[in-house]
Design brief:
The complex is a heterodimer of chains A (307) and B (322). Chain A has 307 residues and is mainly α. Helices cover 73% and strands 0% of the residues of chain A. Chain A contains 13 helices and no strands. In chain A, helix 3 crosses helix 5, helix 5 packs antiparallel against helix 6 and helix 6 packs across helix 8. The longest helix of chain A is centred in the middle third of the chain and has 37 residues. Chain A is globular. The two termini of chain A are 33 Å apart. Chain B is mainly alpha-helical. Helices cover 78% and strands 2% of the residues of chain B. Chain B contains 13 helices and 2 strands, in the order αααααααββαααααα. Chain B has a two-stranded antiparallel sheet. In chain B, a hairpin with a 2-residue loop joins strand 1 and strand 2. The radius of gyration of chain B is 25 Å and the shape is flat. Classes of the chains: A mainly alpha (307), B mainly alpha (322). Chains A and B meet through helix 6, helix 7, helix 11 and helix 13 of A and helix 1, helix 6, helix 7, helix 10 and helix 11 of B.
Chain lengths: 307, 322
């Protein structure tokens, strides 16, 4: 408890907190993000209906408009979708899925990118050459295309049954592999500066192993640019996942994300049921917008040149 | 300079070799090409004869070389889905994607750069601030949501524009164009705007930061000191140097437009390459996927090379340094 109070006090006196207080976009987007995360975590508690429990669904209730328009019911505040599922509930679960894939793939690409960047920057020479050549090559293709092709090819290569079981993992890997380059490039350039500093020389002199030097000593000193990239790329990862799912790739239909919901809604758009696609769309825009706003602020706040 | 270009050329060659191997592997190991060609009740001997006539009994490296040889001539076999040679399927879809990307690129450059120049010259004006808010929203809204919203507004509520397809097309030799009919242009409008929007905001932001950076530089101060007119400073001296990095990004973005057109084409059911690849993936149409992979890799390699060359042509400093 005491240490918690201490860290809280340290945080309140930090530059970062000061800068956060001065930027209304930043703390507003932070609040929205916290709300989003809360909704995603508490989806099973908050959702009025379990949209995956087929016994609670009634096809008679399908395609009901939101409660405020004609024909809407108070029971379904934002209406229902084509299968009679409560929109509030499917959107909560969809948000949970979108955030899960976004965060998981960002973490994976962070681990891959940072590790490769550290190795390339510290070892130099041939290893550095190979890693950076691969990064160059990949950078000449747009990330979304890389993710789409990895996901699409895995569908062609794996038998359908196997793919269905692994599809969630495959989406995460596809998005992660599409986005590791940015971390690797940044980490490599910072590591090249750090590795000749005295503290690194000191630990090298006392005979510490390479892995320990890199992860215990160099890594903590290069974390702030990594943090900025990670924040902004969560937005990108969420967008990529939504796009893949919209195209019919991406997450399995049994566990829909916001992108899947938008695709399903798009299929019935012409019969006038706008809420089935527009509402998840707005939720998605709000999520990406607040991640981007928060990330922009973090980038400026952690940039020593702007202080 | 030569070293740099050779390095780039090597990069391109590596990409093409890797992608062609991937494409070859897909072609050869996914699904049995023999069962796809002979009937279900073919005898073992017939199958063996087929294997030999297809060259499948030869060593792999030889088969790979033959695959590359055929690919260079544009032969990729027959599409499972369309029962038509892959080359013909792709040739019939290519014009749609290229016309869409061209108009979207012109839109993005033609609107984005002037907006960026204005924002760079008047950083504190109200219009600039609202442009920046719009651009932030622009990069946060996924393009398929933009497309759906446009359809909802202009096709469903207002009933002004068609929501899918290319409208009427006219065949000019082998090229089917939508540029010559009214319905063609009406159909093109929403997909082009949807595709251009993201790039437009990107060009605007880039032009703005570049412009502001150039305006702070020494030679602009000297130009002011020489008493040149403001217009001449802004447009002849500053803008020209601003455009250098924009050329690079524009070139690279042209490639990504063709990639992003996959999304736009799906939303508007635009019969181009993007829709083709999505349909091929969902159908498991291996020959089309393999051909698309090679085509798109070649396209990106070429675009990257042209951009590198352009960079050398525009910026004399690069030629001196290397």
């Amino acid at each position: 408890m005491n240490t918690m109070m201490l860290t809280l006090r340290r945080w309140r006196q930090s530059d970062l907190a000061w800068s956060l207080g001065r930027s209304p976009e930043a703390w507003l987007s932070a609040l929205v993000l916290l709300a989003y995360i809360g909704m995603a975590l508490l989806a099973p508690v908050l959702a009025p209906q379990n949209p995956f429990d087929l016994s609670t669904l009634d096809l008679m209730d399908a395609r009901l408009p939101p409660a405020w328009s004609e024909g809407g019911q108070l029971k379904y505040l934002l209406g229902t979708d084509g299968q009679g599922r409560d929109m509030v509930s499917v959107m909560l679960y969809g948000l949970r899925m979108s955030l899960l894939v976004g965060i998981a793939s960002t973490l994976l690409s962070l681990v891959v990118g940072v590790t490769l960047g550290l190795i390339a920057g510290y070892a130099g020479g041939r290893l550095d050459n190979v890693i950076m050549r691969a990064a160059d090559v990949q950078l000449s293709f747009p990330a979304i295309l890389v993710a789409l092709l990895i996901d699409g090819l895995s569908r062609t290569v794996l038998p359908r049954a196997v793919h269905e079981q692994l599809s969630l993992l495959i989406v995460v890997i596809a998005i992660a592999l599409a986005n590791w380059v940015q971390y690797a490039r940044t980490v490599r350039s910072v590591t090249m500066i750090e590795k000749d500093k005295d503290y690194v020389n000191a630990v090298r002199l006392i005979g510490m192993g390479r892995a320990r030097i890199l992860f215990r000593h160099v890594l903590p000193n290069i974390l702030s640019p990594v943090l900025v990239i990670a924040t902004l790329s969560i937005g990108l990862a969420v967008l990529t996942e939504a796009t893949l799912s919209f195209l019919g790739l991406g997450v399995p239909a049994t566990s829909p994300s916001l992108g899947t919901l938008i695709r399903l809604g798009n299929e019935v758009l012409f019969s006038g049921e706008w809420w089935i696609t527009v509402l998840p769309g707005l939720l998605l825009i709000g999520l990406v917008l607040s991640v981007n706003l928060f990330g922009d602020w973090l980038r400026d706040a952690l940039n020593p040149r702007l202080k | 300079m030569l070293r740099f270009l050779l390095g780039r050329l090597a990069n391109g060659a590596i990409v093409m070799v890797l992608v062609s191997m991937l494409s070859f592997a897909l072609f050869n190991f996914i699904g049995d090409p023999v069962s796809n060609l002979v009937g279900e009740n073919a005898t073992v001997n017939e199958r063996e004869a087929m294997r030999q006539s297809l060259g499948l009994d030869q060593p792999l490296p030889l088969q790979y070389l033959k695959f590359v040889g055929r690919a260079v001539q544009g032969e990729f076999g027959v599409s499972y889905r369309n029962i038509e040679p892959v080359s013909r399927v792709i040739a019939s879809r290519l014009p749609a994607t290229l016309e869409l990307s061209l108009i979207a690129a012109l839109l993005a450059l033609g609107v984005g750069i002037p907006m960026g120049v204005y924002a760079g010259l008047h950083p504190r004006s109200l219009l600039t601030r609202s442009l920046q808010v719009i651009s932030l929203v622009g990069i946060s809204v996924p393009s398929f949501v933009t497309g759906i919203m446009l359809i909802l507004l202009f096709s469903i509520y207002l009933n002004w524009l068609p929501s899918f397809g290319r409208g009427e097309t006219v065949m000019l030799g082998v090229w089917s164009t939508g540029f010559l009919t009214v319905t063609g242009w009406k159909s093109l409008l929403m997909p082009a705007v949807t595709l251009a929007l993201f790039q437009l905001t990107l060009f605007m932001r880039l032009t703005r930061t570049q412009m502001m950076e150039v305006l702070r530089s020494e030679y602009i101060k000297f130009a002011r000191a020489r008493g040149l007119r403001e217009r001449s400073i802004n447009y002849r001296h500053a803008l020209r140097n601003t455009l250098i990095p924009i050329i690079t990004v524009a070139g690279l973005q042209l490639g990504s437009m063709i990639a992003f057109s996959i999304i736009t084409e799906t939303v508007f059911q635009w019969p181009g390459l993007g829709l083709l690849i999505i349909q091929a993936i969902n159908f498991g149409d291996v020959p089309v996927i393999a051909a698309y992979l090679l085509l798109i890799a070649l396209l990106f390699v070429l675009i990257n090379m042209v951009v590198d060359l352009l960079y050398f042509a525009v910026d004399p400093r690069l030629r001196a340094q290397r």
